[in-house]
Amino acid sequence: MEALIKVHCLKHIYPDKTEVSICGLNFEVFRGERVVILGPNGAGKTTLISHILGLLTPVNGTVEVLGMQPSKSFNTIRKKIGVLFQNVDEQIIGPRVYDDIAFTPRNEKYNKEEIDEMVINVAKSLGISEILQKIPHYLSGGQKKKVALAGAIVMMPEILIMDEPFDSLDPKSKVEMVSLLNHLNKVHGITIITTTHDINVVPEIADKIYVINDGNIVVAGTPKEVFSDMELLYKASLEPPILTQLFTRLSKKGINVEIPINMEEAEEYLLKEILQPVD
Ligand SMILES: Nc1ncnc2c1ncn2[C@@H]1O[C@H](COP(=O)(O)OP(=O)(O)OP(=O)(O)O)[C@@H](O)[C@H]1O
């Protein structure tokens, strides 16, 4: 199968001469995958995303999206990618929430009824129907995130890229966002790429994880593979998920348990290995 996105040994130099290198393993995303990029502050996650979006041009290395070079085919590629930036204030441009979400459908010349239906449906799926007439500037941080995400998915793009989508979301909103993202992936086949520092949510939203550290992609694997290697996570300045930490401690105490990637697995392993299942 051909990868939708391929990045090979990228090097970027910002105008102030800051050099960012993302070498090591290749970064590859296949259709329908949910990919999470992890790495400490300043590792280059946003830089990588900006290259995939065609906002930056590499000085070295290659970036290929849907068979094109994003920096050269910016307009074609951007129609196929929905994006949620880390700083949503730079992304929200409409005078009212409704206008902001309707921005791209209006540009694409959909008629009023179609736009109404698209905006109302996406607002409902994000629980923001009540704020469609509000001025975005006065929204809370979490509400702004949801509005920006609504704008990113209103056209049902092939690929959705999100930089720190869970920042400033309350626990309930985070659970809802995870379930919406998984719905978009399963039902609409949208390929999803996410950066996050919220490590505990990663198993819920990742088929594959890339870890960037010290200028290199040092690991690529499933959540199970990546989270089983605590040493590697610490080396990359990442805090392993709480379940990984707990089960590693249990296994050091001689309890023979696999590392679970979510609460359901943890419960299953505990019941199987430590406790006798209660009928
Ligand atoms: N516009 C810019 N001009 C100069 N340097 C920049 C610019 N944007 C990013 N950098 C630098 O590039 C490096 C990588 O930054 P980037 O934002 O890609 O990291 P990140 O992994 O997304 O970090 P974080 O987890 O903190 O969001 C950092 O050293 C940063 O200071």
How would you describe the overall organization of this protein?
The protein is α/β, with parallel strands linked by helices. It has 3 domains: 1-80 and 157-237, P-loop containing nucleotide triphosphate hydrolases (Rossmann fold); 90-155, no CATH class; 241-279, no CATH class. The chain contains 11 helices and 10 strands. Strands 1, 2, 3, 4, 5, 6, 7, 8, 9 and 10 form a 10-stranded mixed beta sheet that branches. Helix 3 packs across helix 4 and helix 3 (97-107) runs parallel beside helix 5 (141-153). The protein is globular and about 65 Å long. The model has no long low-confidence stretch (mean pLDDT 92). The structure holds adenosine-5'-triphosphate. Adenosine-5'-triphosphate binds at residues 14, 16, 18, 20, 39, 41-47. The site of adenosine-5'-triphosphate has 12 residues, from helix 1.
